[in-house]
Design goal:
single chain; about 230 residues; alpha+beta; NADH Oxidase; 2 domains; four-stranded antiparallel sheet; 8 helices; globular; binds flavin mononucleotide
């Protein structure tokens, strides 16, 4: 299989370049992001396809630092309070095709558009799905029961540090199968038991009372379990 973006007259060259340019950005200059730019990012998001064309996305600009801190203290990523701007994407959870989570798929399409637009506007962003329990987020931000928090986008002006290269883990022909699952494409995943244990531990953390999280659990999680990125 060849790389479809090779070749001089590739009509997708501009788009492929934009896709390749976007990288997650986690370190930002101390500079506020104008509201108009955030609205442009959202405008890009809502161009995404959505299951049954429901367009069930809604957006919360989380400007108040106390709210961002609360999202972290209740179990969300330590990075949430660190970006100059943040947009929480929520989606209508009353969609029908639950076995395939059409709500999450639609929200994800929107989020990717947003990250690409942020990049094109000279901003940087990172998709954060490490959030407190949905019920906590609903209470904190007045989200009705029929909308579910999906992800928080940290957004800001990137520092001048060079962007991390993120290599694709497999060549295309190992990721693509014809009429069946690709032969060489099994990812290295932990065994089933480990996967179930990790899910159980994750659930346990989510239901840990708030005061225990604040007291010491968050510190342990941030120190030993949170994946560290140096960008
Ligand atoms: C569904 C989803 C959830 C993610 N959640 C987090 C997160 O909680 N914290 C974080 O730092 N990055 C998060 N990321 C960003 C990934 O770590 C990042 O996309 C990946 O390392 C590849 O790097 P790149 O975006 O620069 O290509 C998430 C990405 C996706 C798609």
């Amino acid at each position: 299989m060849t790389n479809a973006s090779d070749g001089k007259n590739d009509p997708a060259a501009g788009l492929m370049a934009a896709l390749g340019h976007r990288r997650s950005v986690r370190k930002f200059r101390d500079q506020a992001v104008p509201r108009e730019l955030l609205m442009r990012v959202i405008e890009a998001g809502v161009q995404a396809p959505s299951a049954c064309n429901i367009q069930g996305w809604r957006f919360i600009l989380v400007e108040n630092p106390d709210l961002r801190r609360a999202l972290h203290e209740a179990g969300g990523s330590v990075m949430i309070p660190q970006a100059p701007a943040g947009i929480l994407v929520v989606y209508d959870n009353t969609t029908k095709n639950m076995p395939y989570r059409d709500d999450i798929q639609s929200a994800a399409a929107c989020i990717q558009n947003m990250l690409l637009a942020a990049d094109a506007l000279g901003l940087g962003g990172c998709w954060i799905c490490n959030l407190p329990s949905p019920s906590f987020v609903r209470r904190l931000l007045d989200i009705p029961w029929n909308y579910s928090p999906v992800a928080f986008l940290m957004i800001g002006y990137p520092t001048d540090a060079p962007r991390r290269e993120v290599a694709r883990k497999l060549p295309l022909d190992q990721m693509v199968g014809v009429d069946r699952f690709p032969s060489g494409g099994q990812a290295k995943t932990p065994g089933r038991v480990t996967v179930h244990f990790l899910r159980f531990a994750y659930w346990g953390y989510r239901v840990t009372p708030q005061f225990l999280k604040k007291l010491f659990v968050n510190k342990l999680v941030d120190r030993y379990l949170t994946k560290k990125f140096d960008d």
